[in-house]
Each structure stands twice: as structure tokens, then as C-alpha cells.
Design a protein that fits this description.
11 strands, 248 residues, 2 domains, Arc Repressor Mutant, subunit A, four-stranded antiparallel beta sheet, elongated, disordered N terminus
């Protein structure tokens, strides 16, 4: 984990509003004035997080909240020993640690980095203090938390009713949308955790999508070859969840 120096952090704070109009910044800061951003970010840091890094464990006290600025974080619910199910995916549209905004200091899910990148890390006590003082942040996080809750509910429905091929297509498309790239890296093991299945299930589903020339997949390197075709293979849940990401 790499932490920016104080001068780098100051530059980040000064340029936050303009940077938010470009890729690589967190959209939730758009609702804040430069003064409010400065108060929220005072004494905090921007860090680089790595694939597989655990930001929160289930049942763990939340010491930090994170605003992804290029990284992607998977929220995983425990299913049984060594198995989990992704119930939320957070990129630059959201925040990791929304429970703190709701007055709960303990994480009910595990937050694991799916794709490496930058994130603004804020100490939970400082965030809670500033959250109470900034109405615009309250309103924006109320909207986002509601959208994240609906995303989790839709993902649970999807996992129960839809075939694995369609669920894998949905998951790959959601990753593409947040990273804004048709190429990314996801291991069989991580996909198995995301989808709540064993690795052999991921292998079969990925092979089915490859045989249709929708994706190429080799040693975790994924390339979407036919985005429209993959959308056709995905269940309706993809469009529903995509709409939630654009919460008003």
C-alpha cells in the first residue's frame, strides 16, 4: 500500500473538483464545494491498493472508509467455508464503508480489492464528524447507499434464479463499465468468490462464453471481444444494476 506525500495530497485536494470531471476520480465528491472537500480530506491520504487486499473483514470494526479513484472493490458475503458471494461492486461512483454513515461501526461484509488503483482513505471518526456537518455529503451518500442496497438485493435475486453463464456475463460487463476497459485481470479463484460457485463452475461458464467468441480468457487475463453479444448473453439484472449505478 503506497501513501501519497503531504505535498502530493495538497495538490490532490486543490485539484479535486476539476479532476472529478475526468476518469480516475470519485464521483461522490462532485456534490461538495472545494471548501467542503478540503474539510473532509484534511489530514487524510490517497493510497494505492493492490488486488486481493482486504479493506474490511466481516465483523471487523471499520477504522477507515475508502472512496475509490480508479480501483474496484468487491463486497463479499460469506456463504460457507472458503466460499463467498459478491453482493456489491464499488468503483469511482461510490464509497466503501457506508455503514459508518449509517451509524454502524462494524462491517457486515468483507471488502476486497478486485482491481488495483488509487483510493482516498479517510479515518472513520473524522469522516463521521464531517458527515454530520456537510448536508450535501449526507444527501449524496443517502442516494448512493440506497442504490448500493438495491444492487445487493438484485445480485441476490440473480444468484438464485439465473444460469451461471448469464451471471458471469453480467459480472464481466459490470467490471468493464466501472473500469471503462474491455481488458482486465480476474483469476478463476476471484470469480468463484464473486459468483458463489466453485472454480470448476467458473471454468465451464468462461469456456461457454469463449466458444461463442464473446470473450478471450487466459490465465486470468480477460478481453471482451463482443460487448453487444455479451450483453445479449447476460441476464436482465445487468441493465437493472447498471441503471442503479447512475443514481440521481
Amino acid at each position: 500500500m503506497y501513501t501519497l506525500s503531504l505535498p502530493e495530497m495538497k495538490n490532490f485536494q486543490v485539484s479535486m473538483k476539476s479532476a472529478n470531471r475526468q476518469s480516475g476520480a470519485n464521483n461522490l465528491f462532485d456534490a461538495l464545494s472545494e471548501r467542503e472537500c478540503g474539510r473532509l480530506l484534511a489530514g487524510q491520504s490517497t493510497i494505492q491498493v493492490d488486488v486481493g487486499e482486504v479493506l474490511h473483514k466481516c465483523g471487523e470494526v471499520i477504522r477507515w472508509v475508502y472512496f475509490p479513484c480508479g480501483c474496484l472493490v468487491s463486497l463479499l458475503a460469506a456463504v460457507e467455508k472458503n466460499m463467498s458471494l459478491e453482493v456489491g461492486l464499488i468503483g469511482s461512483e461510490g464509497m466503501v464503508g457506508t455503514a459508518v454513515a449509517l451509524g454502524n461501526g462494524v462491517s457486515q461484509l468483507s471488502a476486497v480489492v478486485q482491481n488495483a488503483g488509487a483510493a482516498v482513505r479517510i479515518e472513520s471518526g473524522h469522516f463521521r464528524e464531517q458527515f454530520k456537518k456537510i448536508p450535501s455529503l449526507q444527501r449524496e451518500l443517502d442516494r448512493y447507499t440506497h442504490a448500493l442496497m438495491l444492487q445487493s438485493m438484485q445480485t441476490a435475486v440473480c444468484s438464485h434464479f439465473h444460469m451461471l453463464d448469464a451471471r458471469l456475463a453480467r459480472s464481466l460487463l459490470s467490471t468493464r463499465d466501472r473500469l471503462q476497459s474491455d481488458e482486465f485481470h480476474l483469476t478463476h479463484e476471484f470469480l468463484a468468490h464473486k459468483l458463489g460457485v466453485r472454480r470448476v463452475g467458473v471454468t465451464k461458464a468462461a469456456c461457454a462464453l469463449q466458444q461463442k467468441n464473446l470473450i478471450s480468457y487466459s490465465r486470468g487475463d480477460i478481453k471482451i471481444l463482443d460487448g453487444n453479444g455479451l450483453e445479449g448473453c447476460a441476464c436482465l439484472c445487468y441493465q437493472i444494476i447498471k441503471g442503479l449505478d447512475r443514481h440521481p
